[in-house]
Amino acid sequence: MRTFGWFGGNRTVVGVVLVVISGLAAFAQNDVSDAELASSSAGRTIALRTLGNGETSAIPLEHYVARVLAGEGEPNAPEGATQALAIAIRTYATFNAGRHRADGYDLCDSTHCQVPRAANAATRRATMATAGRILAYNGAPAEIFYSASCGGRTESAEQVWPKANLPYLRSVDDDVHAEDQPWTLEVSLRAAQQALARDGFTGTQLRNVEVDARSPSGRVTRLKLTGLRPETVSGEQFRTLMGARQFRSTAFDVDRVGEGLRFSGMGYGHGVGMCVIGAGRRARRGESASAILAKYYPGLDVVSLDSVDGRSRNSATTPAPQNATTNPNGNTNPATRNPATRNTAASPFVLRVPPSSTASAAELEKAATAAYAALTKTLGVSVAPVTISLHETLDGFRAATGRPWWASAVAAGQAIDLVPAALLVQRDGLETTLRAALAELLVTPALADRPAWVRIGAARYYSRAVPIAPPRARVQCPADAELLAAVSAVNQREAEGRAEVCFARALADRKDWRAVGR
User: Fold this and answer.
1) Distances (CA, A) of 211 to 167, 214, 270, 308, 484
2) How many CB atoms lie within 10 A of CB 340?
3) What is the number of other CB atoms lying within 10 angstroms of the CB of residue 236?
4) Which among 95, 235, 78 is positioned nearest to 162, based on CA atoms?
5) pTM for the complete prediction?
6) Cα–Cα distance between 19 and 239 in angstroms, integer?
7) What is the pLDDT of residues 244-280, one digit of tens each?
8) Residue 493 neighbours by CB distance under 10 Å
């Protein structure tokens, strides 16, 4: 399971959870029905999309929790572990409800969100015993994670998602994995190169893969790829490209063996937050749900959903206000937090600006209009209407676009997403960022079949009031992966700079921007 966004804090959980689980005895010997779960949901539902058939159904929240507990939990786990995980699942659903709002539903049934299965008697009992309880920080639903097995030490959130400020998701020792056996995987260098090539890595031959950096928990954060460009890749990206099911975690070592690579590691998943296997072992040695939650989520309170209604990130698990509408992130919030939407018949823009923005819709429209007029004249092409969404928070931008923290804008189709205006001021500025994004929208249709450096180089080149002059010295044009899968902000900016230089030189030779890279 994976999510985006973050809060912060350092309050305690012990003492509150004891109240939560005190009702277990009433359900320990009796089966709980779906009707009882629906009743305990108090009208809250999750719009769940079944990706297999594309159908969406509204499921009572507590029924959803019981089903996900069956899909994500350890079979036959003790009650303390199932109760703790039930609270974590409900917290995830509350915070992330509306994650897929733009597509007409809240959550999907894959590992992108949470995986539900048919509920059973044990998952129904654990759900009912903890009904309506979630983890919170500062009175709001907390952004949390959990994984199958941490292998002996959990990972801090910021190591997996850079700049994620989640102080209650720090790396902690988990002393119930002493008997774990390492997993092993052998991959040929050729197969590894083919997987990397699909993500834009280039080179004639991958000669070796070596660990280049680790996080404090011991997980691989960067690998060196001898013979390819870029020459480094993040541990999590490499795991994804190799196949996350067989490449079980980033807590591994790697050795060159003949013409192949042998990986050996511990754990399964990203390792952030609750360790499902570890929770089961803790419960078996007598630890309560409260102790388990305190171990994996130090600093969070367990509170009633009634006390935080309307304070979740997306608010879809709470009864929607009559005046709720959809914001630029694709989430539903009370109308008092909805962005102002502005467009006129004469304008080529639909602008979405949150009320808290330091830049107004009028300022955004003025900057967009000036940039659009200059670019359409220079390039000789146009595209309309263009939807420009100025996000309220950085995590909202990341959730909507899937881009790393250092990205300032994403241009795709006829839409531009921007980080908050206050953040743009600290970076390249609203006008420059907007001009580059508009330039990318305008040139992409003609350059879609070219290498990424052509499109991105053109966007940077035309974003300048005075374009750069072609340099005398030749530079190596960046590979697609350097631009589309950079491992750091420094690498991203350096690759984009080379793309601009390459475009400027090619434009000087070809004269027509449409012919560059052909």
Assistant:
1) 27, 8, 17, 44, 22
2) 14
3) 19
4) 235
5) 0.61
6) 41
7) 888 999 999 999 999 999 999 999 999 999 999 999 9
8) 12
